[in-house]
Write a structure and sequence with these properties.
This is Transposase-like protein. Strands 2-3-1-4 form a 4-stranded antiparallel sheet. It folds into 2 domains: about 15-205, Alpha-Beta Plaits; about 210-290, DnaA protein, C-terminal DNA-binding domain (Chromosomal Replication Initiator Protein Dnaa, Chain: A, Orthogonal Bundle). Helices cover about 55% and strands about 10% of the residues. The chain is built from 13 helices and 4 strands. With about 290 residues, the chain is of the alpha+beta class. It has helices spanning about 30-45, 70-90, 110-120, 125, 140-145, 155-160, 165-175, 200-205, 210-225, 225-230, 235-250, 260-265, 270-290; strands at about 15-20, 50-55, 60-65, 105.
Length: about 290
């Protein structure tokens, strides 16, 4: 089999979009948004990334990020898992906070990038929020202030023009028009990253499957519980709900069969079916409520 081209390289720029599970809100108050930005800053420092733009809406977010040696998948895994743990602890929530996969678009065109930054900043306008581009939870304020600890504004402004005054003139000219840049192909982001053509997407769906150990770890982190309780016979409500989610994930991703799960968890196969159906029904009900 011909090896697909790697997309990960030092200096690669990605437009990341993450949405709430079942279109639910991922930020319920300002403290949640502050926490998320705190995590972005932490992992930016840890992995030497550059944040070029961002906006945090109630049920989704956009981040324009330039990575160094560490792949985007590892950076985002750290941010998303830590925030999920925070959210689940704060709101006594069980299960996913984000949709299983965030979208990531490789950006390697200067004119596209500059329009994309403004597009990200214009999200509050498209959402008809009264603040418009003055929305507190976007990096537009960092650009207008001319400096920022979190956002690396120089990269985009220097791209617009080497003279700072002229760069700002061009930036504000872009802001005066609604930007809808043509999105590049989405890229798949397992441990290895590949160009997101249709045929690659079909093959990468298999590559993106988590192993049993990875699913267990993910459920433990999301729900802040002990592995022994999750895989044991603990009947605490929180543990049972997490175990049902574990069952659902393993079956849904075709990692294990019901019979194999029953053997691992030492329960009757009918118990596995009931656990799967409870989660499936809960997801369907949430979807109906969102409709």
């Amino acid at each position: 089999m011909v090896r697909k081209p790697r997309v990960h390289y030092a200096g690669a720029i990605y437009h990341v979009i993450a949405r709430g599970n079942n279109r639910e809100n991922i930020f319920l108050d300002c403290c949640d948004k502050e926490k998320y930005l705190e995590l972005v800053a932490r992992y930016k420092k840890r992995y030497n990334c550059e944040i070029l733009a961002y906006v945090l809406m109630d049920n989704h977010l956009h981040i324009l990020i330039r990575i160094d040696q560490t792949p985007l998948s590892k950076v985002m895994q750290g941010i998303q898992q830590c925030y999920t743990q925070y959210f689940n602890q704060k709101y006594k929530h069980i299960g996913h906070v984000f949709q299983q996969r965030y979208k990531a678009f490789l950006c390697d065109n200067d004119s596209y990038l500059t329009a994309l930054v403004v597009y990200i900043h214009q999200n509050p306008i498209r959402a008809k929020l009264p603040e418009g581009t003055d929305y507190l939870w976007s990096s537009h304020k960092d650009y207008t202030a001319g400096n920022s600890v979190l956002v690396d504004i120089d990269f985009i402004l220097n791209m617009l023009h080497p003279n700072r005054r002229e760069a700002y003139r061009k930036y504000f000219d872009l802001c005066r028009e609604i930007q809808v840049p043509q999105a590049p192909p989405e890229v798949s982001l397992p441990d290895e990253v590949h160009i997101g053509r249709e045929e690659d997407q079909r093959q990468s769906s298999t590559m993106n499957k988590l192993t049993w150990q990875e699913i267990v770890k993910k459920i433990i982190i999301e729900n802040n519980i002990e592995k022994e309780k999750l895989l044991g016979r603990c009947r605490e409500r929180k543990i049972v709900a997490a175990r049902n989610m574990l069952i659902y994930e393993a079956i849904n991703q075709e990692v294990l069969s019901r019979r194999e799960l029953a053997k691992i968890l030492q329960v009757d196969p009918a118990r596995i079916t009931r656990g799967f159906q409870k989660v499936e029904e809960s997801i369907k009900n949430k979807s109906k409520n969102q409709a």
